[in-house]
Amino acid sequence: xxxxGQFLGALSAAVLGVRGEFGLPAFAYVxxxxxxxxxxxxxxxxxxxxxxxxxxxxxxxxxxxVMVTRLLGLGYRPHPATVLKGVxxxxxxxxxxxxxxxxxxxxxxxxxxxxxxxxxxxGSVSLYTYAFSAAAVVTGVTASAxxxxxxxxxxxxxxxxxxxxxxxxxxxxRAGLMITLPVLACVxxxxxxxxxxxxxxxxxxxxxDTIVVTFLALGGMMLxxxxxxxxxxxxxxxxxxxxxxxxxxLTCGLHLGITA
Length: 260
Prior knowledge:
Layout: H1 2-18, H2 23-42, H3 51-73, H4 80-85, H5 90-99, H6 101-117, H7 124-157, H8 165-199, H9 205-217, H10 219-237, H11 241-259
């Protein structure tokens, strides 16, 4: 149910974005996350671990409901023939499958890392999850956001010469470094104290040190993700599916190699 709500919310956010509405989707995601957190706080402890999926379901449904309600208010009514039309378009399906490789690679990297962390002792998986989730936030703010901003510009202005991508690559890397390097420095300087302040009741000083060191080690993964975004956009622009697949495989390999 939670996945269905998130899927519906993502589709609704895309339609609203096409219509020039970005504020409401952002608010809906924040509201959904807040709803999940509130549920986790109010659900009795006797429910146990089932409280987590219940909270996720409630947050996803809240997020999806807000955006669908807005779409209906704008008079949007999807036509089944139009919605299903893309299923038979080979190019559209190929793009979707290739685009899904990146999140799949992240998930694969995450699962392999958890499997490795599980061999280190009790609690290691939780500590790695904290660090990995924080690194994913930084990557989302830098590489993911930057690629969304540059995608339209590259598709309109790129002259199909590799040399012309240098300016976009520099822009992407510089913007990413302006965020990533200060974050890494702040985590190295004050990360342990912040973790102890927020999670001091459940984590020891050694646990906080482990989270900080792991997050800093994942800095290479953050930088590698930024570096591959512009070539990936260019490959999509000229529909070079083979190059797209190679770039995605290289990115996945970099993630796994740096994590190891």
